[in-house]
Amino acid sequence: MTYSFLHARRLALTLATGVALTVSAVSPSQAAVKVQHLISPGGIEAWFVQDVAVPLIAMEFAFAGGAAQDPSDKSGVSTLVGGLLDEGSGDLDSRTFHERLERRAIGLSFRATSDVFRGSLRMLRDNKDEAFDLLRMALTSPHFETADVERVRSQVISSLRRDTTDPTALASRKFLEIAFRDHPYRRQANGTLESVPTITVADLKDYTSRVIAKDALKIAVVGDVDQVTLGKLLDQTFGTLPAKAKLKPVADIEAAAPPQLVFIPLDVPQSVIAFGGPGVRRGDPDFMAAYVVNHILGGAGLSSRLYHEVREKRGLAYSVSESLLWMDHSAVVIGRTGTRADRAGETISAIERETRRIAEEGPTQKELDEAKSYLKGSQMLELDTSTKLAHALLQYQIDKLPIDYIEKQNAIVDAVTLDDARHAARRLWGRGLLTVVVGRAPQAVAQPAGVPAPSSN
Questions:
Q1: pLDDT score recorded for residue 455
Q2: Are 97 and 121 in contact, with CB atoms under 8 Å apart?
Q3: In which band, very low, low, confident or very high, does the pLDDT at 240 lie, cut at 50, 70 and 90?
Q4: Among 13, 71, 290, 365, which is most exposed with the fewest C-beta within 10 angstroms?
Q5: CA atoms of 235 and 239, how far apart (whole Å)
Q6: From CA 292, how far away is CA 417, in angstroms rounded?
Q7: Residue 126 DSSP label
């Protein structure tokens, strides 16, 4: 799968918890979208699109910090907080809180990614007062009752135990560990089997007191509500939060230089291969060229070079893809595929040859033109519901893009030249690949030329 630049960037295997409600209200066409910069009477800012076509409201919001703010020895704190904010707050216990959500068909969820602690709120227009009030209580007076903490903790631990026998999870986790060494980005948001049992209620309270604050808040709202009403709701919901977050500084880091090859033994029918290397951050002038050329090499659909070489030409795997993932302080490209253990070496070699070829030669003009056409067309599908539009508008804010980015993005894609794409390809893959293989028999993994002998986990 390829990550659209309208999608929030996610590190693999981030655990999302909470109550979810899918809203499929059709939003205005891209041409008709008018994004407003709303400032409430109390100074709460939001990007807002009023859409009266369907009586629904979708809000996406995020606080800076995310899993990178977890204590170094207690990864998973942010995920537990995300699973517990709606487990009782104010004068409502967990059962009563969820009954009120369900009775009004209100969707409320929280989750942590590497750089932000995110929330989603969905409701019918007529239930907006109750929905926003429940969110206010969740943010300002969560209970963190022992029984609720232990229940959510057990769910996270069960997921982590499943991951110990999941080759995709193991490959993704190891890739990040290699790429980011001792940086917070090496840690998964859902923690580890060692860290999650040690997290205390005091840790949860400390995290919320440091991260959930007004100066770290971004909001996007799409739906059937007017500016005046929305301003009042935002003040009532977020107005009593602390003014300033107390975030620990996070350093910039470039992913570890390739080539590297690591093998993790696991007795599974099919080996999983994760591959990639340093990427390009969102604010980098080369970002869009990197995004386009990555689509050519390993993007969605059946036309990428890797799909042709690995699946169609050689029948080595059912699927293969590579994505560009960007965070506030770094970026990586990461791809995944699965194959028979006795063909893992052949698969790695095919991937390595194709990435080396595009690094040396770049794409063709035809490939560039087709990739641009696909990306411009697919972005329309990313804005066809109120939920997707709110999600995109929040991501633009997180990425520090202008409020009129929707109107500009096609022109930015079009502006990528063949020289730009070739430069980006050399930058992404010119040094080779970081590769992690999870599966049977290390002797089945042949070494690509120039890659050091694989180490085992």
A1: 55
A2: no
A3: very high
A4: 365
A5: 5
A6: 10
A7: G
- As a whole number of angstroms, the distance between CA 301 and CA 307 comes to 8
Across 167-176, 212-221, 301-310, 328-337, least confident range: 301-310
Q: Confidence band (pLDDT; 50, 70, 90) for 309? A: very high
Q: pLDDT, tens digit, for every residue of 34-72?
A: 899 999 999 999 999 999 999 999 999 999 999 999 999
Length of the chain as a residue count: 457
Rounded distance between C-alpha atoms, residue 205 and residue 77, angstroms: 10
Given the structure tokens 């022109």, which residue do they identify? 411
Q: For residue 58, what are its two tokens?
A: 């979708």
Q: What torsion, rounded to 10 degrees, do the Cα atoms 72, 75, 81, 87 define?
A: -140
Q: Which domains does the chain have, with CATH numbers?
A: 16-238 (3.30.830.10), 260-378+405-456 (3.30.830.10)
**What contacts 24+ positions apart, CB below 8 Å, involve 411-420?**
412/288, 413/288, 413/292, 413/372, 413/375, 413/376, 414/372, 414/376, 415/288, 416/288, 416/289, 416/292, 416/368, 416/372, 418/362, 418/363, 418/365, 418/368, 420/286, 420/289
pLDDT value at position 443? 56
**C-alpha–C-alpha distance, residues 133 and 141, integer Å:** 12
Residue of 423, 9, 113, 434 lying closest to 254 (CA atoms): 434
CA-to-CA distance for 255 and 320, rounded, in angstroms?
22
Greatest C-alpha distance within the chain: 67
Is pLDDT larger for residue 205 or for residue 454?
205
CA 6 to CA 266: how far, in whole Å? Answer: 36
